[in-house]
Design brief:
With 70 residues, the chain is mainly alpha-helical. The protein is 59% helix and 11% strand.
Length: 70
């Protein structure tokens, strides 16, 4: 739980200075569906929650990104 909170906090800090798109793998998407508080915090910070995407769309997102966190 502490690790999850740390990841959410980091994304919110990054979103204060950069556009953030969180491409969610199925496990992450499921967790955010269950953790309404974290989901709301991310959305309130302006973070776009994006379901898993195909290779071409993901490649375009990577190409247009300033940097990537994994």
């Amino acid at each position: 739980q502490e690790r999850w909170k740390s990841i959410i906090d980091l994304l919110i800090r990054v979103a204060a200075r950069h556009r953030v798109v969180l491409v969610m793998m199925p496990n992450t998407q499921k967790r955010l569906e269950q953790d309404h508080h974290s989901r709301q915090r991310l959305l309130s910070a302006g973070i776009k929650l994006q379901p898993r995407m195909g290779f071409s769309a993901f490649s375009k997102l990577l190409r247009d990104s300033e940097f990537v966190l994994t």
